[in-house]
Amino acid sequence: MSEKRTIALTRETNETNITMSLTLDGLGQSSVDTGCGFLDHMLTLFARHGRFDLCVECRGDVNVDYHHTVEDVGIVLGRAFLACLGDGRGIRRYGDAAIPMDESLVLAAADVSGRAYLGYDVEIAAQKVGDFDTELAEEFFAAFVRESKITLHIRKLAGRNAHHIIECTFKAVARALREAVAVDKDAADEVPSTKGALL
Do 81 and 26 contact (CB within 8 A), yes or no? Predict the structure, then answer.
């Protein structure tokens, strides 16, 4: 594991052009411009609560809708996490958080396992928050876990307001990942698996 876990990535398709830098051991600083204001807000608080330094710039086909932008940013963020983690040596591996926001409460639990799985049980009655389709939150996390090879469970325990629910979701995931990718100083040279390999 490198002393400072950081990466810069680019990804360009006919639908999106993304540049991203990520530092896992950061201060929660961010600069985010995806062309989707709600996604910018979610990634900014994701960085703050995970204490990840994150810079994202995306130029996408937002004239169509935000689907490609949201999914592709999730893809690149997942790849960035995977690259930063290396072989997973020294990490705590598991993390969880239950985050409230007014009437909403969301639980997230993460296992940096090398096995991509998303358990997403977040019912949202409203179809939109502003011009953001609420179903895109699941698309983002599905892309993220697929590329990061992380097992992630997200469950809404309470909530009515769509903005609050999704914000709780991003904060809970950030806090769970912050714990899971943290270096365990008592086992800094160990891979946290009886198999001897994670990622």
Answer: no
Asked whether 17 and 59 are in contact (CB, 8 A), the reply is: yes
- Count how many domains the chain has: 1
Question: 53: domain CATH number?
Answer: 3.30.230.40
pTM of the model: 0.95
> Both tokens of residue 63?
């004239």
What long-range pairs does 7-14 form, CB within 8 A, spacing at least 24?
7/80, 7/83, 7/84, 9/76, 9/79, 9/80, 9/83, 11/72, 11/75, 11/76, 11/79, 13/72
Q: Which residues span the domain enclosing 49?
A: 6-187
Residues 6+ apart with CB under 8 A from 26: 47, 51, 52, 53, 54
pLDDT tens digits, 39-94: 999 999 999 999 999 999 999 999 999 999 999 999 999 999 999 999 999 999 99
CA 137 to chain centre: 11
